[in-house]
Design brief:
11 strands; alpha+beta
Amino acid sequence: MQIPSLPLFANINENEWNYLREHNMLKLSSYAKNNIIFHMDELIDEIGIVISGIVTIESIDLWGNKSILSNIACGHVFAETYCFCREPLQVEVISASNTEILFLNISRLFTQSDNNIAKTLSQKITGNMLTISMHKNLILSNRIFCTSPKTVRSRLLIFLSNESRRAGRSDFTIHYDRQQLADYLNVDRTALSKELSKMRDDGLISFKKNQFSIKSPLHE
């Protein structure tokens, strides 16, 4: 496997990449849709990088209520905070589609800091992770914006506006099905579907499954 063109491996050269491979710090695994990649309360030594497919990060309370915290798309990493901090996971990581994951064993890499190549790799990956973490903070902030309003329509207005801006056009595709969108916005699925239909009847949007089109400015 060649060096993936991914933010986590920015500025890593072929010699350093081969070091990771030769010391068994990389593992490529495949998952079918809806498989659990990491369990809640699990203590992990690896961070995951999505090579293909989509991964969801889910929070489940003691009563079984589920909330989707984020969607991890191709090229992005997950579970890095728990791995670096050596804390048990407070979330579950689920494959939202057929997914291929590259795992990097951070614990093994950082314990070989007496090796010059390992030391350089540790510094580069730590620096790359800082940049990635800042971008993730923006994503989490967006979810807070989406779930702060009291009404379902207000949450949808913010979410769809953000997705349209991100796509740079009025027609766009979201990564969530209806249940996942309801979990992300922290609303009831039936209430979500009803509000989407009302917004369509009001001439604000049109949609088919996860494809949306904004027909007029999104406002209350």
